[in-house]
Amino acid sequence: MALLTSEKKFIVTSPMYEEQIKGEEDEWEVIVCEDSLEEKLGELGSSLDIRRCGFQANHLSFARYKKIKEKFKPQLIPCNATVEKIRSIKDEEEINLIRKAGEITLQAFEYLKKALHTGITEKEATRELVSYILKEADGVSFDPIVLFGERTSLPHGHPTERKLKENELILVDAGAKVKGYCADITRTFAWGKIPKKWKKIYNLAYNIEKRAIKHIKPKIKASTIDKIIREKLAEAGYEKKFLHGTGHGVGLEVHEEPFLNRNSNAILEEGMVVTIEPGIYFAGEGGVRVENMVLVTNKGGKILP
Prior knowledge:
Layout: E1 2-4, E2 9-13, H1 15-24, E3 29-32, H2 37-47, E4 52-55, H3 62-71, E5 75-78, H4 82-87, H5 92-115, H6 122-136, E6 139-140, E7 145-148, E8 168-174, E9 176-178, E10 181-182, E11 185-191, H7 196-215, H8 222-235, E12 247-249, E13 256-260, E14 273-276, E15 279-282, E16 286-289, E17 292-297, E18 300-304
Parallel strand pairs: 2-3, 4-5
Antiparallel strand pairs: 1-2, 6-9, 7-8, 8-11, 9-10, 12-13, 14-17, 15-16, 17-18
Helix pairs in contact: 2-3, 5-6, 7-8
């Protein structure tokens, strides 16, 4: 657990992580807690000249909050999404790490395409994808999604023993992680020949995403980007086939502020990295999603990597 004042930065941790943290972070004072975290925080709070302390209410259970409150003298003030909003604007180093994670992800997609063959299962294809990412990155940002045929209609479906057949869709959603920073990219492609219907839907999703990215700039509402996509889908008669929000921020978490949906109050700012991911899904038939990470710059949206 981290505690920051205007003068010092503390990390309270167990002995298991002491050596690792000290080796990675030299600007933080590490306080080792062998027994009760609440007791140790209470001791730390008593030693500091602070009256109030904000905490991330959406990351703390009520049970733990009660225990901390009993031991911690400063008044606890809930601060919902405060840290997340600060984190939403990336510096150059963070952007470069996300870019690197994106590059590895795209390389993994190309590796997977070469590893695919008729009869391979979704699970086997997922293992091929993950094996490449683990060779080049620190890990995966989330459990990858690899779906075949009619199962591509599941926006967040889990890979199964379903085998790849000739002439069907493949949907891959994955991300590498580099030094804690995530990537999130989706590609839909064909295995063999597919009906013209799917080519038309793919081109629609691709062009809608491209149009939305052109509108990305500082000070635009996140909900406006979502509206642009929904309006174009409605014109094509597919608005109800879009089953999720337009996108989200990417950084230390694969889903973080800002969120781009119809109810969002977020305003895009320079330095944010967001996904744009229009999808069109037909239950029991298949679906298409195109997802890229986009950096908000003073000149507009720039696809990463």
